[in-house]
Amino acid sequence: MKAYVVEQAGGPEVLKMKDIASPAPKPHEVKIRVKAFGLNRAEVYRRAGKMGPISGQVVPGIEAVGEVIEDPAGVLRMGQRVATAMGGLQFARNGSYAEEVTVLRSNVVDLKGVTLAWDELAALPESYLTVWGALGRLIDRAPQQTLLVRGATSSVGQAGVAYAKARGLTVIATTRSADNAARLKAIGADAVVIDTGAIASEVRAAVPQGVDLALEVVGASTVRDTLKALRPFGHAVVIGLLGGAPVLESLDLMNELRQATRLSFFGSGMLGTPALPLSDAPLTWITDRLASRDIPSLRVQTFDFDDVQRAHSLIESDRALGKLVVRV
User: Fold this and answer.
1) Is 111 within 8 Å of 121 (Cβ atoms)?
2) CB-based burial, 18-27: b 16+ in 10 Å, e otherwise
3) What residue ranges in the chain does DSSP mark as E strands?
4) Pairwise CA distance, residues 283 & 293, whole Å
5) What is this structure's pTM?
């Protein structure tokens, strides 16, 4: 199969398309013919050597959509439409920047009956499954709450806005640039706050009691301010690293969490584990609402398979206001 291989850390130019062997699936795995995949910061960091050393050949990619080639256990039929995300992709096994990918069956979502175009489907798995993993238990059966999305212009931040709005929440989104406000309102934000680094007082001016929940995509550099915007017993979930390493120095539990506010971190590596089985994931619920336009498309550009280097350059430029995908 053709796949993109990284053999040394570097810029987009180290992504080289090569012919490599396609691993046969083991009894607990599924082989998928990749039709399209989304681009993520994790792949940029992996390519650049920021997520561990590059030893041997690394095939990047943490998500894909496509058709089943082989399922040794016979759970999924050949040709079945599926999505996959995480499950060791690009670390413990070849990633999805390839014509074929062999994945854990526990990290496969059946898309039977879903007729959306492949590039639209490719914009969904990692972003929406991460948001669901971080917030689903808090919002799926509890509408009429207020959510703050800090760092909402990132692809996962936009998914957070769109998903929460579709679930019936009131959403406040932040961005560092006023130029992005129209985009955030178009995908479902009820209010947009320009992020100066200290926005808790502005959020509380709009919601005096404080927000019920916060999805923190920026991370450690803003989370202390985000905690100040929560109501008593409110919950902030950190999912992003845009603001640097996820480390807080000298967290003062008595003063910074004094109103019984809760702080947690969700890593998408939990997806497909016994603690978070993807059989519970609402991906087809999302595709149905995308088809009916109750959830907006977050895809902003589709690249051809031979143009992945240019796609990486664009994602690193921070000029892509939405999800970039590659059609294989």
Assistant:
1) yes
2) eebebeebee
3) 2-5, 16-19, 29-38, 63-70, 81-85, 100-104, 108-110, 146-150, 170-175, 191-194, 211-216, 230-238, 262-265, 299-304, 323-327
4) 15
5) 0.95
12 touches 313 (CB < 8 A): yes
Nearest Cα residue to 97 out of 164, 170, 12, 194: 12
- CA-closest candidate to residue 241, choices 150, 129, 147, 115: 150
Write the DSSP assignment of 163-175 as a string of letters: HHHHTT-EEEEEE
Q: Which pLDDT belongs to residue 141? A: 87
CA 288 to each of CA 50, 177, 298: distance values in angstroms, whole numbers, following the listed order: 37, 32, 15
Token representation of residue 233? 């017993």
Q: Residue 9 is which amino acid?
A: A
Cα separation, 270 vs 272, in Å, equals: 6
Residues 199/227, Cβ–Cβ less than 8 Å: no
**Parallel/antiparallel/unpaired status of strands 100-104 and 29-38:** antiparallel
- Mean pLDDT of the 173-179 span: 96
Residue showing tokens 């920026």? 218
pLDDT at 245 over 80: no
pLDDT (tens digit, 9 = 90+) per residue, 274-296? Answer: 999 999 999 999 999 999 999 99
With contact defined as beta carbons under 8 Å apart, do 120 and 37 qualify?
no
**C-alpha span between 212 and 145 (Å, rounded):** 6
CA torsion sign for 93, 95, 101, 104 is positive
* CB-CB contact of 115 with 52 (8 Å): no
* Beta strands in 178-285, from DSSP E residues, in sequence order: 191-194, 211-216, 230-238, 262-265
Q: What is the DSSP string of 27-87?
A: TTEEEEEEEEEE--HHHHHHHTTBTB---S-B---SEEEEEEEE-TTSSS-TT-EEEEE-T
SS3 content of the chain, % helix, strand, coil (to 5): 30, 30, 40
Residue 223, CB-side half-sphere exposure with 13 Å CA sphere = 30
